[in-house]
Amino acid sequence: MTPTLLGRWQTRLLLFAIIGSLVSLPFFLLTANNPIFFILLAYIAAIGLVWDVLYNYLQQYRWDRDWPAAMQLLSGLWEGIFFAFLFKLVPLPGVAQGIPLWLYAAHYSLVWLTIFVFSQSLMRVIFPRWRFNGGQWL
User: Fold this and answer.
1) What is the mean pLDDT of residues 57-73?
2) Other CB atoms closer than 10 Å to residue 12's CB: what's the count?
């Protein structure tokens, strides 16, 4: 599959909205119904839309115009580190600064790994046309 920018955006938003929300639900319950993890999820999805523009540009220089799975996994690591620095250095509206870094790392890691595994396996089985439309849904 050669993803288009619109396809990347649609897939990212869909996966973060559905899979990310399901993974964030236990963290929500663990922190006495504090919605901080859903707010973080929204920030990560929004910042990811900007990253996708950069990834789409860099991808044009690859011979097959696609990232291997290992590069996609590493991009999640890079995004997580960047957002951790942003989260600790810049006060974001709706995000309390008192959340421990380990709790953020656990949440981000679980969300990203679940989304990665889902996009590499079940998405291809459940939605076979998704792959042939550049990742676009609409």
Assistant:
1) 76
2) 21
